[in-house]
User: Fold Alpha-amylase from Savagea serpentis.
Amino acid sequence: MHKMKIAMLTFVFVLTFGSFPIHALAMSPEEQSIYDLNVDRFNNGTRDNDKDVDLNDPSAYYGGDFVGVKERLNHIKEMKFTTVILGNVWKSSNFLGENTTSYIEVNEHYGTQEELISLVAKMQDEKLMAVADFPIDQLGDAHPIRKAHETSADGQWTIVDETLVSTMAKEIVASIDKYGWDGIRLTNTQNWDAASLESLIDLIKKEADKLIVMTLEQTEANNVDIFHNESLMQTFHDTFIQFNSGVTLYEQMQNIDRRTQLQVDRIDQLRMTYEMVELRMFPPTRWKTALTALFMLPGVPTVTYGSEIAMNGETVEEGLQMMNFKTEMELKDYIGNLNTLRQESETIRNGEFELLHNEDDFTVFARYSEDEHWIVVINNSDDTKKFSIPKERFGEDKVKLRGVLNQDLIRLTKDDQYNIIQDRERVEVYYVEEDKGYNIPYLIASIMVYAAFILFLYVVLKNSRKKRAANS
Assistant:
């Protein structure tokens, strides 16, 4: 069934748009879609670096490495993501990247510098943007920057001055030059003022002008390319953690900066799946509802690895499990469908956003431009909902609303309305197209194909009976 839907989507896109997805490296920051992973917990590609591995201890290393990520890039590409954050890959005290002591030396548990260079090159060959984390505060004692600048007892900088900013920029640029990063995510930024962070980013971009810069924490720095918004993430989380949540995020989206990350949880925080289960919700349904909003709203959809299998865990460490590639992956196909929609449609990525209805956990909004018109319906309640769109919305021409996720079809009624009826916890994305009535040649051709197939089965079965009769 899922493969049939994917084939249908591909067919729809070829007919509608006549193009293929644009490459990530040619996309602007706000057009990206991000997959955020932890190297140690993604895939173990070689046993050569399996040191201190204990799969029964959530605080220990699990054995994931650069070779393993490289082997599983197709998994990420099949979900159509454009950007991959590898997390903190540097020499550190644990798999979470704490007490980082270098921006050049890699964590030996993940592999070698050569393997990381090979991984980044492979990602770029596959048109995936490669991003790494760079903590800029609370570095380990052995980090060369830490040795040269004064810190408090917990490793926080006593003062962030021009010398520190300049030194740090040089170290990060050296790493970019060595490994070829397409983007960086600055972490541990919460104690940096906006002006100092802006200066750091300016110095880095002076040497790497095409680099995409994001931060893990929210900041007021104006030159960050992809913003984190803690309040918005919490609202996303609270909206979709359960049906009938009574929380709504859509009003906030009307004037959103398109470079804002859209996410429901973060790699260093508790998994949303855990809270879904605690509330006795069904995670796959909850995730489909949340993911539809993530990919159809204006902003940069960001998904934590393992969300495609509804990864769970009572703590942050337990929620960062080794990725299981053999389990049910219904959500993987669903994410791929949504990402395909977004990549194929300039309007979904950059078009206008209009909220048409938002009441009682039932939301209808439009994404539109001069070329396309989409209607997105999200029923986040436990009851069937209805909303009617007047004919005038789409001009004088008669149109039809064709659902591309569940193949719904809505036509104009006698009272000049397009009636949307959505079952509980169900979503749909409708493409608005001219209604030319029923395609008689297509229907005839379809009937002939089915008739020919039935005739073929009849002949095969008849010959099979004759053979069995002859052999008996």
Summary: The chain has one domain: 2-350.
